[in-house]
Amino acid sequence: MLRIPVSISIKSLQQEGPETNLTESFSHGMMTEQDDKVYISYKEEIEGAGSVPSLLTLQENGMTILRKGEMRTDMHFMPGQLTHAKYSTGVGNIALDIRTDACKMSYNRKDTEIVAEADYALYAGEEEISKNHIRIEIRKRDD
Predict the structure, then answer these.
(1) Which class in CATH covers the domain with range 4-140?
(2) What is the pLDDT along the chain (143 residues), one digit of tens a residue?
(3) Are 103 and 121 in contact (CB under 8 A)?
(4) Helix, strand, or coil here: 59?
(5) Distance (Å, rounded) from C-alpha 58 to C-alpha 39?
C-alpha cells in the first residue's frame, strides 16, 4: 500500500447561540488509499490534551474522524443522517449526536489535493448545542 506524505489544514467554525469560535490546526501526516476510501493518519495538537494521534477516513458518502490518546473522539459525518459521537476525556465521557446537513469531498488525484467539508449540528439528547462547519485541506508534501 502506497503511503504519501501530506500536509493537513483543519478549520472548524462552531456557533453556540450568539458566540462563534474558529479553530485552526495544521499537521503533517501520511495518506493511503484502499477500497474506495482515503485514510490520513496524523497527530493533532489539541489544547489540554497535547499531541493526539488521529485518523481521518474519507469516502464518497461521508467522512470519519477518530482521535486516540488523552482525548478520544469518534465522529461520523454522513449527509442526511444522525450519527452518535463519543468524546472521552480525562474527566469523563460525553455522548453526543451529529446531524450532518452536507458533506462533500473533491479529490485532485494528479496533484494529490483533497478538500473535504461538512456542515453539521451537535446535539446533547434532543437539544441542539452548536452548529458547525469543518473544512479539511490535504496536500502532498514534496519533502
Answers:
(1) mainly beta
(2) 789 999 999 999 999 989 999 999 999 999 999 989 999 999 987 666 667 899 999 998 899 999 887 667 889 999 999 999 887 777 778 889 999 999 999 999 888 899 999 999 999 989 999 999 999 999 999 87
(3) no
(4) strand
(5) 6
Domain range list for the chain: 4-140
Which amino acid is present at 141? Answer: R
Grid coordinates of 83: 450519527
Residue 1 DSSP label: -
Cα four-point dihedral sign 13, 14, 20, 22? negative
Separation of alpha carbons 49 and 104, rounded Å: 29
d(CA 140, CA 7): 6
Return the C-alpha cell found at 31. 495518506
> Which residue, chain included where needed, has cell 493537513?
8
pTM over the 0.85 mark:
yes
> Three cell numbers at 69?
490518546
CA angle 23, 137, 45 (to 5 degrees): 45
